[in-house]
Amino acid sequence: MTLESNNQAKIAVIGECMVELSQQPNGQFSMGYGGDTLNTAVYLSRCGEKADYFTVLGEDTYSQSMLQQWQQEGVGTDQVKICQGQMPGLYIINNDENGERYFNYWRDTAAAKTLIRNYPEIFKQLTSYRFIFLSGITLSLYAKEDLAQLFSFLSHYRASGGIVVFDNNYRERNWGTLQRALPVFAKMMQHTDIALLSFDDEKEMYGEHTPEECIQRWVNSSVTEVVLKNGQHGCHHYINGETSLIPLLKVMKPVDTTAAGDSFNGGYLAAKLANKTSNQCIAAGQNCASTVIMHKGAIIDRAIDLTGVNSLELGVNHLEPETYGHVTGAQKI
Question: Residues 194-219, buried b or exposed e (16+ Cβ, 10 A)?
Fold first, then answer.
């Protein structure tokens, strides 16, 4: 299998977008659309690059409205499949006084679950992208047989030079039990080049442990770069056998953390596609996320500037990353 080079977008994003109901300060709910990987694709586009989205929608009004909004955002929709009689899922967001979010989902029969089963041609289509991005929520959509096909494809894709980026994004309710999720995540580790991880999610899955132990677990499975997102404590970054801590310049009380990690991923990946340095990529992710968490909803108003306040490029008094350890590396397999 040979990677093609004539595709406009450099990255394919696989996942699900749902109808979103988000609680407002007056107690009312506003309707929008969101999903972790779709959020990342939107913020990647707003940060200057382009992603093609791979999912399944229906022929209903909500699906058509989603497509129109994605196109307005610059997200590629040529690879979106339309299935008659299917509809997207639904989720409701409530926030506590600290901005932390709580979700309720209605997605058991969502159209996106049928992507691999009903559209096996996606694997040929995916070979034309330099990067593929997916998440733990993406994995939770698919049946065991679908996952086996996906992992087989990713093995061949990486062997041909493709780069797989994975966000752990673990939600227990999507899996039923932790025991069902753990072997799937262990398999995904073996097919990941760049891991963009939430440390909270890692601790939920593997119990209390240190950032160094977390990074080592992923590196042992052949991951070549790890960004461990740790909220107000900044990011731990592993590459080329070295681990460093990249702090935030300013810590703010969030309004809504719904898309904190997703928006970080968008900023980070846009910088990665633009061939920025690792520190610049993390700064871009921090910039994007620091703006998004100060507003309600997963997708904030397009008019809001995403340059943020944490940039290592913008601030003359920036904090240099602190190298604090060596992690035993593993070769890509």
Answer: bbbbbbebbeeeeeeeebbebbbbbb
